[in-house]
Amino acid sequence: MCQWCLKHGAGKKWYMNAKNYQADQISSEEDMVNYLEEQWMNFETVFIRKIMGFSSKNLGYKMQMPLIGKVLRWKAENMIHSEKDGRNPQRADGHFGQVIPLEDGKAILSELAAEPILCNYCMCRWMQRGEKEAVCLNFGALSGVLEKMPRFMPKERTNPIDREEAIEILEQNNKKGYIGSVWFQPVPYINAICSCESPECGGLTLRNNFDLKAVYKAEYIIDLDQDKCQGCKQCVAMCQFSAIRYIPSMDRVIIDYDKCFGCGVCRHACNNDALKLIPREEYPGFDGEY
Amino acid sequence: MGKTTINIDYSICGESGKIDPRECTKCLKVCDPAVFIMHETIGMEDKQEDPYDPQDWRITPIWGSLCNRCFKCVDACPEHAINVKW
Ligand code: SF4
Ligand code: SF4
Ligand code: SF4
Ligand code: SF4
Ligand code: SF4
Q1: Which atom of ligand 4 lies nearest, measured to the CA of B34?
Q2: Mean of per-residue pLDDT scores for chain B
Q3: Secondary structure letter of residue A110 according to DSSP
């Protein structure tokens, strides 16, 4: 379990704690709605806004600057994980997530997620690629907010969906190779399950390129049964983190465990039962590596 | 690799140009590392008829350090509004 489980999990994983899905148990429902409305009205500008006089424009170069780079990183991490009063919704303070496998996503959708549940356009694919793909599942107070914003609402699906439908959508996306993820916004309120793509996903961009913990690795890691692997290479194309590579001389794949986020989507491609997820803590070298 | 500078001419594409980037999106799509971000133009908020549905947009080359200098955006832009240099 990660630091957020210890803090907000009540003995379980943070996203398995029912309380974190109830806006009114965390702050007033009104405050929550105001925060989310301000955040989502301005979401595409989140990286353009300034932190200490710096926007995220050319963040890579800024982080290379001596001293300033260090201060910026510290400030950005604090912003992402902020639990302070007066968090700035325009900068999405306190908004971060974790990769989850399909099984955990289903468990969340089948009972924990607060209704109404909406399926809306992915904001990241829109702002990074101009593509509108309805893959995001939002719950509770966030649904009421998104409903008002035409750019996130697919015309053919403006009404809330039921739990079974939400599970089916998540499953389809996961099988396509999209990475399941669950989000605090703002911590500890949970109101979204996403099906992400890299490099489109803003959170994964921050994590993969600038090592900012906007997305944590899953509570799991992949385990390859070398004897079962037939070297068909089907799993290689599924992994968005380049964690799997085919080795011709041995006619099997190898895993770069450091790169594995534990999303589990590679499993959908394997017909030989060679890939399974195990709890991260069972893998001695990667226990605690989120 | 030294620093890459990517510029978009907003007098051509953006809130005051003849192109609405939401109608084109070519640069967003051709760039493999996804350097560009499309967003409502900051400072135009008060001018929107419906604050939930902003109509003034522009594109910012946000992740400049990820640019691999392929020039695909420069070639793809129908209005020659993008400039990449180092
Ligand atoms: S976090 Fe993932 S699914 Fe959600 S908006 Fe971003 S890329 Fe889309
Ligand atoms: S190897 Fe890890 S990161 Fe890659 S698809 Fe499998 S579980 Fe996901
Ligand atoms: S899909 Fe399964 S059998 Fe095929 S290469 Fe991957 S692990 Fe091996
Ligand atoms: S030159 Fe290539 S990598 Fe750089 S911004 Fe343009 S399309 Fe992207
Ligand atoms: S390709 Fe050129 S015209 Fe099209 S959106 Fe990009 S900058 Fe604007």
Answers
A1: 8
A2: 96
A3: I
State the complex-level ipTM: 0.96
In tens, the pLDDT along A249-282 reads 999 999 999 999 999 999 999 999 999 999 999 9
Contact at CB, A199 and B52, closer than 8 angstroms: no
Q: Which residues of A68-104 are buried (b: 16+ CB within 10 A; e: fewer)?
A: eeeebbeebeebbbbeeeebbbebbbbbbbbbbbbeb
Cα of B31 to ligand 4 centre, how many Å?
A: 5
Q: Which residues of B10-45 are buried (b: 16+ CB within 10 A; e: fewer)?
A: bebbbbebebebeebbbbbbbbeebbbbbbbbbeee
The encoded tokens of residue A80 equal 């992402």
Q: Which domains does chain A have, with CATH numbers?
A: 3-45+58-216 (no CATH), 220-286 (3.30.70.20)
Label residue A52 by pLDDT band (50, 70, 90).
confident
Q: Enumerate the residues of chain B whose CB falls inside 8 A of the CB of residue A155.
A: none
pLDDT tens figures, A62-98: 999 999 999 999 999 999 999 998 999 999 999 999 9
**Whether the Cβ atoms of residue A210 and residue A60 lie closer than 8 Å to each other:** yes
Cα(A195)–Cα(A240) distance, integer angstroms = 12
Neighbours of A155 (CB within 10 A): 6
Q: What angle do CA A225, A246, A218 make, to 5 degrees?
A: 60
pLDDT tens, residue by residue, A122-165:
999 999 999 999 999 999 999 999 999 999 999 888 899 999 99
Query: For ligand 4, is residue B81 a contact (CB within 6 Å)?
Result: no
CA of A229 to the centre of ligand 3 (A): 5
**Domain at B5-85, CATH class:** alpha beta
Query: Whole-prediction pTM value?
Result: 0.96
Token pair, residue A55, equals 């926007």
Q: Would you call B51 and A41 a contact, using CB atoms and an 8 Å cutoff?
A: yes
Provide the residue type at A79 as one letter.
M
